[in-house]
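Hi support team,

I'm filing this because I wasn't sure whether my run with adenosine-5'-triphosphate finished correctly. The job status page said complete, but I'd like someone to confirm that the output block is well-formed before I use it downstream. Pasting the exact inputs I used:
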Amino acid sequence: MTFIRCRNLTKTYRKGDMLITPLERLDLDVARGEFLALMGPSGSGKTTLLNLIAGIDRPTGGSLHVGEVDLSTLSRTRLADWRAHNVGYVFQLYHLVPVLTAYENVELPLLLQPISRRERHTRVAAALELANIADRHDHYPRQLSGGQEQRVAIARALVADPQLIVADEPTGDLDRDSAAAIMSLLTRLSGDLGKTLIMVTHDPGSTRYASRTLHLDKGRLVDSPMQEAH
Ligand SMILES: Nc1ncnc2c1ncn2[C@@H]1O[C@H](COP(=O)(O)OP(=O)(O)OP(=O)(O)O)[C@@H](O)[C@H]1O
Ligand SMILES: [Mg+2]
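And here is everything the job wrote out:
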């Protein structure tokens, strides 16, 4: 069952009188529950594509359906609202708030939702448990290792129970063992929880966890991988 459908998806930026087109007429279907890995050289449009699918950015052309919704027709405000309810975003550098504890960082997305304190606590505790970081709930980001920070960031991406999780080089800053632990956690999200997962990675080793790997080059999907230049 198709969950994400991109047709002729195009993103163009104007810089002075120069046009930059990081994504050009891209067609892509992603099934519900799929774990898709995206690879490609630096500047090939991976983050641009992820940001469109996650509703952070808006397409310049083409259509982009996620579930029943055509994101290309939503206003910025509606898009932000859609994103808050449907997408969890995991970044390479975690982006935790330094003055908040692990618990409070995970709680943050729920403060936007009309739910009781008790319900919030139940959900935060469950997300921390799932990400295997509950024992560090009262630690601040600076008191955590990179791998632990990424676990907190994954718990935060999960806590509002989004259908879609996108991750931009989630293991880019981690050593091999921490990266493997994060990858098995992400695999569990798609396998056990049925989340649809799209992950950008430069590490060919990480792609074996994914159900499918696609390669981008100069804003287009290509059949054979280009030489990675990073
Ligand atoms: N806001 C913007 N304004 C102008 N150009 C942009 C903007 N965002 C991205 N680009 C350009 O779009 C192209 C693709 O960028 P993108 O960030 O998607 O690459 P990437 O594949 O994620 O690369 P990397 O592996 O280095 O993260 C680049 O040439 C970049 O300079
Ligand atoms: Mg990128």
